Amino acid sequence: MADNLCTPSGNSADHRPHQTGEARGYKWGSAVSSSTEWLMDTGAQISVITKSKGALFDLTPVGGSASGTTGGGGILVKSGVDMIFEIFDSSGLSKQVTCSLDIGVKPNDDGSEILGVDQIEHVGAAVEWDPGAGTGRLKTP
């Protein structure tokens, strides 16, 4: 099976799994799409985007907050952005999936755009990652 996870662009010394996908939503009634490099973080209970990425979209606060280990505190939970990423299905075929779960928005641009366990589990996927090789896959079991 092919790989759809790799080290982050421009930093092969970072041994955490990343994947380029998209964030989609609306701004002033017009569709907006932004290429996004997602860090696959199975320790994150909620997916998170940076302040500047969040500013691209009209987001609605949902009344929650979160605290992060990176990117400072004051992460506000909002709706209004879809996270698009690739998984391999059980037959090994690549497919693009879209998740519309609420996300956290960082108060700054520190750290990565994070695809957390909430989105990964929502599509029934799991992360297989070899940090030594810097390759892996996001796939359904």
Describe this structure in words.
The chain is mainly β. It has a single domain (18-139), classed as Acid Proteases (Cathepsin D, subunit A, domain 1, Beta Barrel). It is 7% helix and 49% strand. It is built from two helices and twelve strands, in the order ββββαββββββαββ. It has helices at 51-54, 117-122, and strands spanning 5-6, 18-27, 30-41, 48-49, 60-66, 75-79, 81-88, 94-99, 103-105, 113-116, 126-130, 135-139. Strands 8-7-2-3-10 form a five-stranded mixed sheet. Strands 4-9-6-5 form a four-stranded mixed sheet. Strands 1-12-11 form a three-stranded antiparallel sheet, with no helix packed on it. Strand 7 and strand 8 (94-99) form a beta hairpin. The longest helix has 6 residues, at 117-122. The protein is globular and about 40 Å long. The two termini are 13 Å apart. The mean pLDDT is 91.
